[in-house]
Amino acid sequence: MSLSPTPLTIETVEMHTGGEPVRIVVSGYPPIPGATLLAKRRQARERLDEFRRLLMFEPRGHFDMYGVIPVAPDPPRAGEPAADLAVLFMHNEGYSTMCGHAVIALGRWAVDSGRVPLQAPETPVAIQCPCGLVRARVSIENGKAGAVAFESVPAFAFALDAVVAMPGYGLVNLDIGYGGAFYAVLPAARFNLDVRKSPTRALVDAAAAVTEAVRAQLPPLAHPDDPDLAFLYGTILTDGADTWSEQPTANICVFAAREVDRSPTGSGVTARLALQHARGLIALGQQRQFESITGALFGGKVLRETTCGEHPAVVVEVAGKAHYTGTARFTLEPDDQIGRGFLLK
Predict the structure, then answer these.
(1) How deeply is 344 buried, as exposed, middle or buried, from its count of CB atoms within 10 A (0-12, 13-18, 19+)?
(2) In CATH, what number does 8-151 get?
(3) Among 14, 53, 128, 264, which residue's CB has the most CB atoms within a 10 Å radius?
(4) pTM for this structure?
(5) Which residues are catalytic?
């Protein structure tokens, strides 16, 4: 389907979680065919990508914009509840498989909009993401939706102490963790950087270089559920504070096409906790705080052990709060070629 014929109108709800935008499409997006959510993701990427560019790129978005497309959920798997809603995630490069900051916003929006009936003191919301079913719990504060906690899909350490060659730094050790998406994870200090003090551009350059090195030098990733999940989404640079502490541990996540997550990154926190657990640095039930470059905090803990194919895995809980920033009604006029979307880096 094309953006033509125009004029076109798409309505959205605008939110942020820890400063990271969440643009939720509520009307005007074309139907996305597909027997499964991952099939819908492929259809969106291959046949409807003009709509992503329209909403994520300038003049309606920006280089670091993030969006959500609600779609029809799959029939529930055996032993799982039916999903209250299913979503595709989109960004400057394409379509991610998991997004914790968006799940936190979606939980609040689902209750506030009446899509899921409010239950006090906590409302369960089952959200099908491309990586699987994510179970959120929305705290009800003064009769309204507040903070949200979600249980991850099985998360695991894919590789510990992998080695890549980095120009100017020699051989660099890193871990690869899965938290609904795959991330390379390593301390920023390996590049003489500090995630709390160094310029964002320097951190982005280092993280993007790691992502490129991992993709070029290490064996391909694999996920037991579906090959569409087996790609490196980005790199997380940390403060190196992986041993459990009551003090927050800081990180910056650089994903997709050098996009910077303003939040601590829900799937990234999940991956970090899976790696910390695999190294014996955190016990079941120990609560940690994870801090982003905006100073936003997510809480996180390992709930229980499980498996994911051949991988020892864990289920993680991540908690945070999202806020509304407004609503939008986007249009496209027939003669507006520039308005179909562009990016200035």
Answers:
(1) exposed
(2) 3.10.310.10
(3) 264
(4) 0.97
(5) 99
